Amino acid sequence: MLELPPLGLYVHIPWCVRKCPYCDFNSHERPGEGIPETEYVESLEADLKRELARGPLGTRVVETVFFGGGTPSLFGPESFERLLDLLRTNGRLSREAEITLEANPGTAEAARFAGYRKAGINRLSLGVQSFDDTALARLGRIHDGGEALAAMDMAHEAGFDNINIDLMFGLPGQTREQALSDLETAIGFGPEHVSWYQLTLEPNTVFWRRPPVLPEEKSIDDMQEGGLELLGRAGYGRYEISAFALDGRQCRHNMNYWAFGDYLGIGAGAHGKLTDPGSDRILRTRKTRQPRHFLAPGDHTAASEVHRRERSLEFLMNALRLRDGFSADDFESRTGIAFGTVKEKLECLSSRELLELKGKRVRATSKGYRLLDSILGELA
User: Fold this and answer.
1) What is the 3-state secondary structure (H, E, C) of 343-368?
2) What is the set of domains in the chain, with CATH numbers?
3) How far is residue 162's CA from residue 153's CA, in Å, rounded to a whole number?
4) pLDDT (tens digit, 9 = 90+) per residue, 315-334?
5) Which end of the chain is more exposed for a tag (fewer CB within 10 A), N or C?
6) 344: Cβ–Cβ under 8 A, 6 or more apart, which residues?
7) One-character DSSP codes across 80-96
């Protein structure tokens, strides 16, 4: 039977200074006349009010908020404060809420960081990607290594004590030594969380149309092996494929995604998911992608139902990314489907030493974790 999971809120800010050649997110270079920040925040407020009034939501409280993009740090602190105040005045924001803002070092200003903290943002995610100027130029980033270092100092000075650093490896022309040097620099700042992931070439990107020369597969494997060792020695536990955290500092918002939790999505292109146990339904919402369309008056939401077979597959595709996996009870409460419907498939994968089934818990083995895409393909 379906049960209510935690509820998050995702807020999409679609603009950036320059579109990176590897990026397939719904992001748009800021227009020459400037970003319509005030107008967009007003549209976000109207969108949020509609979401809070959505039938299945009831009086549920938001436990995590994530401002993503694009580059949300192009907006001033007062914009985020307006949205958070709307939640607070409606009694919809948990007192212990994790509130994350993505920031680009190239748009970092010390005064703004202090303003973000004062507005109520308590977790900062810095899109560093690399500290090497040559690598950053190849990635089309607008910041250099010095600005990345300065941004981390600013974050600490502003009072942030929950910081994530985004880093990539397997970059064009990158050696193992350079990849591990980036990671060592990041660890040296003592962030509470590190997102460390391999550069991949995604459709509908510049890199897809004009692929750069990437390191060979063996070199990338060596980078990953060395990086996992570095992170482990520094006390960062790997709790998801590319997410590493100090004890108790896992990203609660993303954990909720991977555990098939609920979330409201507002802003251009944002997606949401909402569970309604009373009617045994799970709803998906999605907003119009183009910022200019989202800015027009009216409701820009499309909704659809997640059918039972889709629930099972979506749960498994997400939950198996978690290093600790999931329990049979988790599966049943989040999907409303009996665990027995998937148990035979999971046992087959277990017999091939790809999954581990212990009591009611399911997780990928070390071998299975390396072959997760293949496992998910077999479950589809």
Assistant:
1) HHHHHHHHHCCCEEEECCEEEECHHH
2) 7-255 (3.20.20.70), 308-380 (1.10.10.920)
3) 13
4) 999 999 999 999 999 999 99
5) C
6) none
7) HHHHHHHHHHTT-EEEE
